[in-house]
Design goal:
Blueprint: E1 3-10, E2 19-21, H1 22-32, E3 42-43, H2 44-57, E4 89-91, E5 97-98, H3 105-118, E6 122-123, E7 125-134, E8 139-147, E9 150-154, H4 172-175, H5 183-200
Antiparallel strand pairs: 1-7, 2-4, 2-6, 3-5, 7-8, 8-9
Helix pairs in contact: 1-2
The structure holds zinc ion.
Residues 62, 64, 66, 75, 77-78, 80 line the site of zinc ion (ZN).
Length: 201
C-alpha cells in the first residue's frame, strides 16, 4: 500500500503571502533539483528556478549609462563590472508538491524535505491543504498553517456566512487559445463541444 500526495494547495490563495529568500531558493534547488527521489514532479521549488533564471537575465544599466546585454558580466562600453541585484525575496504563487499517477516521491519527501528543509525558509503566512490517499481508494485532506517558517497542523472550523459558490463555468474549449479570434463562430459550436470539454478535464 502506497500513500500518495495528490495535491498541496493554498486554501485561500488571495490571502497567502509566502516568500522565500532568493539565496535560500538557490541553495535548496542546487541541493535537490537533480535528485528525482527528492523533489516530486510537480513542485513549487522547481517552479522558482525559472524566476531565479529570469532575474539574472534582466538588463542592467551600468554607471556610465550603457544598458548591458543578457547576462553580461562587464559593461561593453567602459568595462565596469556589472553587479546584479535580483529581488532578495521571491513570491511563492503556488505550493504544489505532488506526483503523477502512482509515484510516491511527494509523500516520501513531504516531511523530510518540504516540512523540515523548505518550510523553515518560508516567510509570510498561508493556509494549505494536503490531499493524500492510498492508491486512489480513499482520499483525505489535512490542513495546516505555515507562519514565518513554522508549519502547524490544524482542524478545519466551518463558520456560517459564506457566499454560495457560482458554478457557471466558462467554456474551457472557448477559453483555449486555439480559436480566440473567431469568438462569434465559436458560440454556434458551444453545445457540440460540451462533451469534449468534460473529457479533457
Ligand atoms: Zn559602462
Amino acid at each position: 500500500m502506497t500513500t500518495r500526495i495528490d495535491n498541496v494547495y493554498y486554501l485561500k490563495p488571495e490571502q497567502a503571502n509566502l516568500t522565500i529568500a532568493a539565496s535560500d531558493a538557490k541553495r535548496l534547488l542546487k541541493k535537490y533539483k537533480d535528485d528525482s527521489n527528492v523533489l516530486p514532479e510537480y513542485c513549487f521549488l522547481r517552479d522558482l528556478e525559472e524566476k531565479l533564471g529570469q532575474q539574472t537575465k534582466d538588463k542592467i544599466k551600468c554607471q556610465c549609462g550603457t544598458q548591458s546585454y543578457g547576462n553580461a558580466k562587464f559593461c561593453r562600453e567602459c568595462g565596469t563590472k556589472i553587479v546584479r541585484k535580483g529581488p532578495a525575496d521571491i513570491e511563492i504563487e503556488s505550493i504544489d508538491w505532488h506526483d503523477d499517477e502512482y509515484n510516491s516521491t511527494a509523500a516520501d519527501t513531504f516531511f523530510p524535505v518540504f516540512v523540515k528543509e523548505i518550510v523553515p525558509c518560508l516567510q509570510g503566512h498561508a493556509a494549505i491543504g494536503v490531499t493524500f490517499g492510498d492508491d486512489d481508494i480513499e482520499w483525505k485532506t489535512a490542513h495546516a498553517l505555515i507562519d514565518n517558517g513554522t508549519l502547524t497542523w490544524c482542524e478545519l472550523q466551518l463558520v456560517p456566512g459564506a457566499e454560495a459558490p457560482d458554478f457557471e463555468a466558462d467554456d474551457l474549449y472557448e477559453a483555449g487559445d486555439e480559436e480566440d479570434e473567431n469568438e462569434d463562430e465559436d458560440e454556434d459550436e458551444e453545445e457540440d463541444n460540451d462533451l469534449q470539454v468534460v473529457r479533457r478535464r
